[in-house]
């Protein structure tokens, strides 16, 4: 696939290249949308917390890492059960290298971060197997859209990321409710993608809500309310509000497709100003199919930061090459933005060096 | 006094002119810092709510007005006991005329606004007569400072306003604790400034905290904790974080002097990048003395929007000329910013016309 900076033009090359070139030298604002859902606590569904209960702490800890360079609500940083650190490490390194400002927005949290955050009026999400996953969806979309309108006036473009454990399962939930075939296609932070468990979870949720596959194709608000998570209305609203004025890079993996489906159903016009920005690990992942999901929704370009940890001196980073973690906290999108803002001066080598420096500091190794 | 645009250079003319000229054509971000204090409910102390209990709703309602063009948490708009509308009407008109983005930041609220707002970790304030007025002051200053650092990267300069009923009494409290002579000098939203009641309230608070006048000259954090309000740590932190990088216009009347005293004690270096922006009504007010308080603290310039409602066709606006309301919600500073951003295209006449248009819409008159 074609590259520009150290960015792979992964889908709709032509639009992707135009989109990326437009960002060169421009000043973005990075918004990190965080939320929690009880869905993450289903045994075996997420690696974004060492134990299921820890998933409540992962999003606020990620947000703290971005703003403070360290976590406050937990000791150390969020890690997978194998001790592989959060992708927020990549995001933080990219944003700092390129001096990109950060705003944290909450869609609904069990544990609040000990940093400034934008409250969008949402609540923590329930287990999607209840069929009643998220409260107040329409109101949060409206508030987030208002925030997006104002934030769009403060930057040349927005990069919006997310941190929510369990988010690929809720993504599958919303996509299924909206009639997008995504079973076996959503990504995972674990090397063994538990597709069966995700599918079973979503089917329970659909049944509990009295829904069939595609039953809410034209009702994205209800799809999120029944089978989604509280990151989604916050994220979708921000995009809708901002992309009317400036380009928006949706920074994430397959979770972005659920948000894309929601935006496409609510306000498709803004999508001409939108691209998905992810990592090489998501693009080359054999156990998921980001492009295959996007194809069913809207013709938006997909960019992927060509970051490669194979040569890292740290096992905890080389593990990313084995398909662990892959993406999250806008890692890919923030890397793309850092490269674009600096006109390529930040490249994959410089980024890896900075990530290793921060890894050593935060993981207490040399 | 000298003018530039429709702005009066009210103190330190030379610096004021340089500061103002630097803003010409630049793109600001307006931050509205809102909070509540039980102090506002002392009978006769504030006009920022028709009844004392309403003061809990004034700040969120003001914030909603700025972002939505109407209030959600109350019917209509906040008014004084005489039915004179909130100065947020001026702010909203100025910001919309000049297309200036708004961010609302909460220092601690009883009632949350139904719009996106930045949570800075604070709590509503207690009656200062307890001598224990505000919790968590240091932490809120730190969080706000972090927010200010990031926001400074998104704008050419910041304009920061406030909405907190009872705020001139808490200002007198902090100034007194810090040894600044302000008795009889703080402003009021009422035509008859209740200086005696404010002084008595502050003296009760000092006694309850076991403090003498000036006893906390070098401890601004404790001065706010004992006798201040939750707007102050949020506001001071934002200024400290932002003014290290960009100019900051502190938009308000005599309340700004308490925040100025706090900043001056914590981080005086940033004050070279700071000015106070207020209204003509504060500057010419015979019952208060903004400049006399500033003189005791730091040599910052004071600018005043030369807005004049004498010719308005609405009695509710002409009342401003009798000394009712005078300032609040960053009315003066936002008017100055609107004039500066548009290079004077927004002037006092155009602003009054827009304010009258919004007055008619919101007050349901013609």
Provide a brief overview of the structure.
2 copies of one chain form a homodimer. Chain A has helices at 13-23, 58-68, 88-97, 137-152, 167-177, 195-208, 220-227, 231-242, 255-266, 280-283, 290-294, 315-318, 331-341, 348-363; strands at 3-4, 7-11, 28-35, 102-108, 117-119, 157-163, 248-251, 274-279, 302-305. The first copy, chain A, is an alpha/beta fold and 366 residues long.
What does this structure look like?
- In chain A, α5 crosses α6 (195-208), α5 (167-177) packs across α7 and α8 packs across α9.
- The first copy, chain A, has 14 helices and nine strands.
- The two termini of chain A are 36 Å apart.
- Chain A has a nine-stranded mixed sheet, with helices on both faces.
- In chain A, 40% of the residues lie in helices and 13% in strands.
- The longest helix of chain A has 16 residues, at 137-152.
- Chain A has helices spanning 13-23, 58-68, 88-97, 137-152, 167-177, 195-208, 220-227, 231-242, 255-266, 280-283, 290-294, 315-318, 331-341, 348-363; strands at residues 3-4, 7-11, 28-35, 102-108, 117-119, 157-163, 248-251, 274-279, 302-305.
- Chain A is globular and about 50 Å long.
- Chain A has one domain (3-361): Rossmann fold (3-Layer(aba) Sandwich), CATH 3.40.50.
- The model of chain A has no long low-confidence stretch (mean pLDDT 96).
- Chain A has 366 residues and is an alpha/beta fold.
- Chain A binds chain B through residues 27, 29, 67-68, 99-103, 105-106, 112, 114-121, 139, 143-144, 146-147, 150-151, 153-155, and chain B through 27, 29, 67-68, 99-103, 105-106, 112, 114-121, 139, 143-144, 146-147, 150-151, 153-155.
- β5 (117-119) of chain A pairs antiparallel with β5 (117-119) of chain B, so a sheet runs across the interface.
């Amino acid at each position: 696939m074609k590259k520009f900076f150290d960015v792979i033009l992964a889908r709709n090359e032509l639009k992707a290249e135009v989109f990326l070139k437009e960002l060169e030298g421009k000043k973005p604002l990075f918004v990190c949308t965080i939320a929690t859902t009880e869905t993450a606590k289903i045994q075996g569904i997420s690696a974004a917390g060492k134990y299921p209960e820890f998933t409540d702490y992962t999003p606020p800890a990620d947000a703290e890492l971005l703003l403070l360079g360290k976590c406050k609500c937990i000791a150390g940083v969020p890690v997978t059960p194998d001790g592989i650190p959060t992708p927020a490490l990549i995001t933080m390194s990219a944003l700092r290298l390129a001096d990109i400002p950060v705003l944290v927005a909450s869609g609904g949290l069990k544990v609040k971060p000990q940093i400034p955050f934008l409250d969008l009026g949402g609540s923590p999400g329930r287990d999607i197997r209840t069929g009643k996953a998220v409260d107040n969806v329409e109101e949060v979309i409206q508030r987030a859209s208002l925030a997006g309108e104002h934030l769009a006036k403060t930057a040349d473009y927005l990069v919006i990321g997310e941190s929510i454990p369990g988010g690929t399962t809720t993504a599958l939930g919303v996509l299924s409710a909206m009639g997008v075939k995504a079973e076996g296609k959503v990504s995972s932070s674990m090397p063994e993608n538990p597709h069966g468990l995700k599918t079973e979870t979503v089917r329970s949720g659909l049944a509990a809500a009295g829904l069939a596959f595609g039953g809410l194709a034209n009702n994205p608000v209800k799809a999120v309310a029944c089978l989604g998570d509280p990151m989604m209305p916050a994220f979708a609203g921000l995009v809708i509000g901002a992309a009317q004025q400036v380009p928006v890079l949706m920074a994430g993996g397959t979770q972005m497709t659920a948000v894309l489906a929601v935006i496409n159903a609510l306000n498709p016009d803004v999508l001409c100003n939108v691209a998905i920005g992810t990592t090489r690990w998501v693009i080359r992942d054999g156990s998921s199919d980001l492009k295959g999901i996007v194809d069913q929704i809207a013709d938006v370009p997909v960019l992927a930061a060509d970051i490669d940890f194979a040569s890292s001196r740290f096992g905890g980073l080389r593990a990313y090459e084995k398909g662990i973690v892959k993406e999250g906290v806008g890692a890919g999108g923030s890397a793309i933005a850092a490269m674009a803002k600096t006109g390529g001066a930040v490249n994959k080598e410089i980024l890896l060096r900075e990530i290793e420096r921060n890894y050593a500091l935060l993981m207490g190794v040399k």
